[in-house]
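User: Run a structure prediction on this.
Assistant: Running it now.
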Amino acid sequence: MTSQPDQSTPRPASKPRTGVPVWRTGKPDAVLAAAVDFARAAVEGIAPAEQIGQHLGAKSEGDRVVTHLFESRLAGYQGWQWYAVITRNSRSKVITVNELGLLPSEDSILAPEWVPWAERVRPEDAQEDESSADIVDAGPSVSEGDELADADDEDAVSDDGAGDAPEDESGSAREVD
């Protein structure tokens, strides 16, 4: 009698390679899966060749649709991957590019999730805002240096007589009603 594996114990799931997203399963189209050079050339249309690393894999997205992944060597995008989605018509050898771009992987450095300003304000931030509002409400303060400068300006106006009384065309002062 041959031994049958126990159906009640779950099988360990195969661990996906690090950095390669888990997509639809299925056998990729043989022509498209072999078109690594075509996919690389397509990605080189949007990025310099030195920013595109080694080929990481080809995954089936459906009937005659394959996504090729390439390592990104773009500064600031550690762990990201270039991708090229390619397809072809049934019984045709002509390959078409559907989509190109850059995707984050599990190892990617990503920006933190956006938080609205009202939720980011800490109590100590609000206290700083209140104290600056109190200073503005008090009005502008006049320093001693400003008082001296204002006094000098007033003396200069009264020394030359201008501004005391309006003058007529002859230059003599006239009375103001």
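The two ends are 130 Å apart (CA to CA).
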